[in-house]
Amino acid sequence: MSTYAIGDIQGCYTELQNLLNEINFNEKNDQLWFAGDLVNRGPKSLQTLRFIKSLGASAKIVLGNHDLHLIAASKNIRPISNKDTIKEILTADDADELINWLKSRPLLLTDTDLGFTMVHAGIAPQWSLDAAKNFAKECESILQNEKIDDFLMHMYGDIPNIWSDSIEGYARQRFIINCFTRIRFCTINGTLDLDVKVAPGSQKKSLIPWYALPNRKTIDNKIIFGHWSTIHLGAENNFKKYNVYPIDTGCLWGGQLTAMRLDDEKIFSVTSKQSKL
To answer: 244 forms bridges with which residues in the sheet?
Structure first.
């Protein structure tokens, strides 16, 4: 039995099938971890979501920002843009079943036996792993209960942009969601910058990748994440120094779709069929 972590798919179903062939995936024996953003912007979001759901216990996922966007759009809380490719999901006969399944997925996945934790984007440098687990559960419970509509209405925004134990209510939960699903760069004191999306090493000097902040409390934990499609394009790519494993390799943008076998950290990739940007 092997466990594979797979980067952002975003509806690139053909590449996913090619990658599963590349790793000789056996549904009865192997397990797949998906780093979120299963859907949106790519050509086959509905097919992708149905397939991953059909894998049952063989697949574990964490929610990404595009997955949350789909959930919010399903409740008419967020508009669908011209770039979105989720309308086919929302009009499908099994839309409710798919959305309900997605809502029940976690924001953080950890396995002490394998020694890995996975989130979509990152973990606030001020948080320990135990704290991050608790914050994830706090938001997961709301996504799965009757308060979800109010939560989604208040989820979007960039403020607060720095953690404090005194933050309460929707502001606190917004910060938590932004860390798990949107974070890339911070300032030296841990203030989030959610606008800059360049590769590490290309940012202005005042910004630091979240995983590289001094005294990051999860430095001793192996963290897998996706979200950052440009992360492998920069000069600063000594990720193991920081105990992180970024696996978004820009499939949607004409790059690759990547899997890492957790048992030995071996990397497998297939070439994207999407237009290269």
So the answer is: 223
* 134-184 pLDDT per residue, tens: 999 999 999 999 889 999 999 999 999 999 999 999 999 999 999 999 999
Nearest one of 74, 99, 78 to 87, comparing CA atoms: 74
Helix (H, G, I), strand (E, B) or coil at 207: coil
Tell me the per-residue pLDDT of 73-85, one tens digit each, with 9 for 90 and over. 999 999 999 999 9
Which stretches of the chain are DSSP H helices? 13-22, 45-54, 65-74, 87-90, 95-103, 129-143, 148-155, 169-181
Closest to 104 in 3D by CA, of 153, 141, 152 = 141
Residues with Cβ within 8 Å of residue 17, at least 6 apart in sequence: none
Q: What are phi and psi of 6, to 5 degrees?
A: -120, 135
Do 232 and 246 meet the contact criterion of CB atoms below 8 Å apart? Answer: yes
Please count the CA atoms within 13 angstroms of the CA of 3 that sit on its side-chain side: 17
**Which domains does the chain show, CATH number per domain?**
3-271 (3.60.21.10)
Average pLDDT over every residue of 98-114: 98
Rounded Cα–Cα distance for residues 213 and 232 (Å)? 18
Here the tokens at position 35 are: 């780093």
> Is-contact 68 99, C-beta < 8 A?
no
* Contact (CB, 8 A) for 229 and 10: no
In the structure encoding, which two tokens stand for residue 225, read together? 């994440």
Predicted TM-score (pTM) of the model is 0.97
